[in-house]
Amino acid sequence: MRPRWRILAIVAFTLCLLFGGLMGDQVLALNDEARELLRTYSELLTVVHEHAASKVNYEELAYSSIHGMLRTLDPHTSFLAPEAYDSMRDRQRSSFHGLGILVGLRNGLLTVVTPIEGTPASNMGIRAGDVIHSIEGEPTQSMNIDEAVRRLKGPKGTSVTIQIIRTGFDEPLELTITRAEIPQNTVRYAYMIEPGTGYVALSDFNRGTAQEMATAIDKLKAEGMERLLLDLRNNGGGLLDQAVDVADKFLPAGSAIVETRGRTRDSFQSFSASDNRPDLGIPVVVLVNAGTASAAEILAGAIQDHDVGIIVGMPTWGKGLVQTVYTLSYGSGIAITTAKYYTPSGRLIQRDYSSYYDYQSHSDQTVEVGPASRFEGAPVYRTDLGREVYGGGGITPDISVELDELPESLQTLLARSSFFDYGVVYAAKNAIPDRHWQPDDQILAGFREWLVEQGVSTADEIEAAFANPEIRESARRYLHAEIFNAAFGFEARHQVLARGDKQIARGLEAFLQALDLLARRQSLEVPEQRASLGGA
Fold first, then answer.
1. Among 77, 209, 235, 488, which residue's beta carbon has the most beta carbons within 10 A?
2. What's residue 533's pLDDT?
3. CATH topology of domain 187-320+343-351+362-398
């Protein structure tokens, strides 16, 4: 256990930051009051530690009380214990040192989802479906994902020994792999989804995102891209400067991107597109959903407000609070909300969070689709071309598309990793000649037999489920995707699943509207592009 004074020091420093508003003069003004409160808090910690019925330690008490205290401010101000602080900094970096594998839990086992091409893991022949049985001799069954990943990562040039269990092998394979620098790509996919149509999926914003986007756009243009489908679904945000740099690639020169407004003078900042860069000049459609948040909403909002793209999908999360991270003692940190984000038309991105339950559950959002705002009484703003857009939090899409609920039988098979597991088994036993290959009825029948053999479902349950043509074709597509994942990698898997994605399909249809918007945008005669923000 850390000495008591260390824990109290962390608590004291955190409280001083919060009470003082992170301003030196205010800290001095509140010093006497803060000192009295801290003395009371110190006494409280001692009494609880010495007299509580259950054994507790100072770290648990201090950290729990800090989390409870910060909850009274807003949903996103948070204390970062040392491990959480390190994890946050890792996510923001453009690379790390490790093996180069994506891992997940499949039926409770630490399983390789896919190796990253060109990394030590790929070069050593690690395959999708390999189960990591032990790391440095310690079984992984006792580890959670975060702990296992920490053990696999390490300084560049060091090695780690793992044992893997592979389909078709009776004994575990032991491999010693030297760690190397692994790019932490945020452009997950970049390929031609249709002739002339590029597709880019952006997962978040870290230090390398703007450069990754530039590289992806150049690559797709070289392949004949005339339209771009930008997928921001489930992009939880990240670094503001990277969102601004990515937006700069889409917006008219000099146009506003985002503004931050807060309580202190230095929290008011405006960000605009550069003046010396040509427009992208092609129709753009952006996919969003409830998982699109923060920096991703800044990008989507700027594209919508300046009429350079059509937004398709479902309303975004509505996280428009600026977090400034301060380093505290002993490797911990605090992310404090210091301002709020506003789009070029003046819309506040942040949703109301007066009810924590409504905010987290999204029960304050309507599920209606169409032109109506998802919030009652939400203010109306206007884009550069005069189109109506809605405030009240988040980005309301121009075209609303709600995904259908998967049948329970398919959800069960996905939850049990049945498609993934069978894809690994099939690809291990059968050569897949090329990406034109398609699973036929015989393969589907083999999958159904395997489900019964593995005890996943009974023959009668499988027969009843697969009697439905939609379930049967969906199962064929999931099988196709997982076999391609095992044979060709994660992007090949995604290309198969994209063909059955309702929001992607509607996004592709929206390019006629995006082309019309682009033509109107280009003919807009405005002496100076909008460079400042304001409501309409």
1. 235
2. 44
3. 2-enoyl-CoA Hydratase; Chain A, domain 1 (3.90.226)
